[in-house]
Amino acid sequence: MAEKKIRNDASSSGSSSSSGGNNRGESVVVDVGRRRSSCGYCRSGGHNSISHGLWAHSLTVDHYQALLDRGWRRSGCFLYKPEMEKTCCPSYTIRLKASDFAPSNEQLRVSKRMQRFLDGTLDVKMRDEVMDEPDTSKSQITSSEVRESLAGKNEEMNKAEQFMHYLSDKIDNAVLALIGSGNFPCDIQLPKASIKKVAPSKRKLLVEGSEDLLFSSNISFQIAAALMRAEKDKHDIKLSRDSAGKNGLCLELSPNIVAEKLTNTLNQLVESTGLSIRACNGHINFYSAKKQAGLDEVVQIVSISKESLTGSGIPGSFSKKISECPQGKRRRFELRLKRSSFDPEEYALYRRYQIKVHNDTPDQVTESSYKRFLVESPLVYIPSTGNATVPPCGFGSFHQQYLIDGRLVAVGVIDILPKCLSSKYLFWDPDLAFLSLGKYSALQEIAWVKENQHKSPSLEYYYLGYYIHSCSKMRYKAAYRPSELLCPLRYQWVPFEITRPLLDKKPYVILSDFTILPNEESLALNTLENNMELQHDDLGQEDMNDILIDEDEEMAELDFEDSDDESGPESSGFTSVQLEDGNVSDTLIGLKGSRLRYKDLQHAFGPTERRYLETQLHRYTRAVGTELSKQMVYSLG
């Protein structure tokens, strides 16, 4: 009789775990409790990043959608939710309704720049051009190639001009390095460098004792101006020292400071070119090593390697250096959507991206770590099969491939769920950084949601992952407007315009406490500061330091230490979420292939085991919610 009862309970429970009987599979998870790790955002040094974790053997798209709407995310098959009151960098789920999206001027410029590149009308100075067919019969650029690329110029580019383009590229690489290290923001497009020759007659006029000054660049003035314009566009107010400091854009990034930062990064050129590089009044100046050395002599002395002129120096690169795009050369753009699976070409691109953009060492970028992070997924695939509520591609985990002239240039790792497209990660060809592929892919993903909403009406939203206000390099996500953040207590969505002043004051805020109606706005703003001082005084932290986070990166592959659970519900990190009744009797338990409600299983445990298990179940129920605890299978083995 007992075995028969177990089978009956398992049968009834199994049907309830399949998302309302829609034959979408079942979710089976293992609760790993509280996890501590070093933070990939603030780099605080300790294990200050605190989250609740689940390993998912399988996960329905409906359940994952519900988990997203409670602040969860996934990395491979691992699900995690920050314990917002305790973690060093509170992470708020951010989304926007695709149909309401209003692109900014900068986002429109990104689209136009890509279109010009595809049309062949974009002037790209000495960029690593990956679209040309490889020519194995030539090891470097010939004069005929150069003449074609100069679009109308009939004379061969001389060595001095080549060298100036080479220096421009080095400055642009230094800008990218400073973006990666957090010295410059990653959410705006910075101008490209240009180099000018300094005429002998003007050298003494510019700098005393500068007879050996050969080249100069004013890029620092342009970068400083771009930063200031971005701040004004972002806030629609006059830039002030206080507001700049709060929003990750330091007013002290004057042309002089920018020039100093770039010069320090460019010091490696001293050995490779024989030039000396110094910052002077905001300019970046290049001097010959010999006094009175003529320009031609310096150019002859400097040895520009074939690698410098024709490739990126990264294994697997198929780049060529060109002076500018040939006029009228159109490129073919393709966007392919494929289910998540291992692809050697994608892995090769990912490896180049991680090494060049994130400075990973080759032994850190392994095939197995790539698979765990970006290929493996617990989501149960749901095909369309003519179902009007499912898009033609189905629901599940996908890789969106960006190809130009048949070559893979970017891959977006995404989950397509009943209500949204959830963006997980993007990696791209480092040689095409000037195209801002991160921004461009976000625009494409938003457009995909708009297009497919007609086929799947419930698919309305674009989820950008976590918004971390205390990490300025993650604030770019709020540039996709109008966005909203998820309240960590009541799981209500709050417009970002309301949340921004709150998060300027405290990193952790119960956002739904400040939801307002239009006619209440004035009163709310007057009482905002007083209310903020009453909330969580012990969590008043300053903004965290910038770190190396790609504009599409969520969390690096998780490297957690052992669980740090404490007994009792008060220690779970979810003490603020007391709105749920915490009843665990209907929690669905998986044990030796059976599916049972806890109330039907508890008699099988002794008093000590039962107390321990109920403590774990209370913590789990608070984390995933009472309804999901009744539907997902809590596996005990």
From TrEMBL:
Coiled coil: none annotated. It comes from the Eukaryota. GO terms for molecular function: arginyl-tRNA--protein transferase activity. It is an enzyme of class 2 (transferase). Keywords: Acyltransferase, Transferase, Ubl conjugation pathway. Residues 345-487 form the N-end rule aminoacyl transferase C-terminal domain. InterPro entries: Acyl_CoA_acyltransferase, Arg-tRNA-P_Trfase_1_euk, N-end_Aminoacyl_Trfase, N-end_Aminoacyl_Trfase_C, N-end_Aminoacyl_Trfase_N. GO terms for cellular component: cytoplasm. Residues 558-568 have a biased composition (Acidic residues). Its EC number is 2.3.2.8. Residues 11-29 have a biased composition (Low complexity). Residues 37-107 form the N-end aminoacyl transferase N-terminal domain. Residues 1-29, 132-151, 558-578 are annotated as: Disordered. It catalyses: an N-terminal L-alpha-aminoacyl-[protein] + L-arginyl-tRNA(Arg) = an N-terminal L-arginyl-L-aminoacyl-[protein] + tRNA(Arg) + H(+). Belongs to the R-transferase family. Involved in the post-translational conjugation of arginine to the N-terminal aspartate or glutamate of a protein. This arginylation is required for degradation of the protein via the ubiquitin pathway. This is Arginyl-tRNA--protein transferase.
